[in-house]
Amino acid sequence: MLLSDFDYDLPEDLIAQFPADKRENSRMLVLNRNEHSISHKHFYDIVDLIEPDSLLVLNNTKVLPARLYGTKETGAKIEIFLLKPVEDSTEHESVWQVLIKPSKRVKSGTIVKVSDELSVEVIKRLEDDGEWLVKLLYSGENLLDVLHRNGNIPLPPYIERKMQTEDIKKLDFERYQTVYAKDEGSVAAPTAGLHFTKEILDKLKAKGVGIAYVTLNVGLGTFRPVKCENVLEHKMHSETFEITQDAADLINRAKSEGKKIIAVGTTTVRTLETAYQKYGEIKACHDHSELFIYPPYEFKVIDNLITNFHLPKSTLLMLVSALAGKDFIFEAYKEAVSQRYRFFSYGDCMYIC
């Protein structure tokens, strides 16, 4: 299986730079696998499309304000992208794995000042994909509060802001986050969930649809391209996930009763399929996933999927191709391009049923 098999042409102006005016107003391409049909809806129609007694499973991770801008002692401007903490915080200090840009003149001991209450001390360069180990030095009582005051939402690189006003920054803080996000730990949003509102969730519950939440902290791998032409040689980055006992009970009960499990987003799919592969069922756990799903793949847990449109040659495009069939997915993407759907994180979505 070749990487070039998963390429497609996308006009640059179809890459969404801002979210839809309202979350639920995004367009939705519906792929019916049994009928091999494609139809055009809006996300608010999801309430009519999901059958009563189905179980909707969502990823409730929260995006960290992981992008920091600072200045070296020389005056040079530096961007620090927080990836994950590697040690428990002590008072006013926390060690993290990060990306640094530009990194050419950065070395051990370099100090980057972000603000009066936050500086970054470089410890060393790591061997893995240009990552660094740094120490965050902060004067506030709580690191998360400090990051909220000084950090920026880590939008993906294809969202290019010519101007970053306070209003735009505020918009990103609100809209690049799901309405049910709970615990901060991700460097990218589980974007399929961005279309949901509290009202839509309430309508689904009133209709008899069950709701379960899992947590997978979206890591750097979401931005990393596949570099090998032979897809099977690609290695996924590890991402941590958690399934509570309540969620496990809901999912196992739904499976045993033959109810449909509808995953919201590829991160939810990877969480559930990883857990099943490891334990033979969904059980309460705190674990990690390196699962790479590509055609052909037999899904053990999920039936249907709500997902955004994915980048060419990406592992996420391979995952949806495994679920709906590569030819059907590429037919749908061609239709989405011709109908000028908006693509990627802030874009429209599809429902594979």
Automatic annotation (TrEMBL):
One of its GO terms (cellular component) is cytoplasm. One of its GO terms (molecular function) is S-adenosylmethionine:tRNA ribosyltransferase-isomerase activity. GO terms for biological process: tRNA queuosine(34) biosynthetic process. Keywords: Cytoplasm, Glycosyltransferase, Queuosine biosynthesis, S-adenosyl-L-methionine, Transferase. Pfam families: Queuosine_synth. It is found in: Cytoplasm. The keyword ATP-binding does not apply. The keyword Nucleotidyltransferase does not apply. HAMAP family: QueA (MF_00113). Transfers and isomerizes the ribose moiety from AdoMet to the 7-aminomethyl group of 7-deazaguanine (preQ1-tRNA) to give epoxyqueuosine (oQ-tRNA). Monomer. This is S-adenosylmethionine:tRNA ribosyltransferase-isomerase.
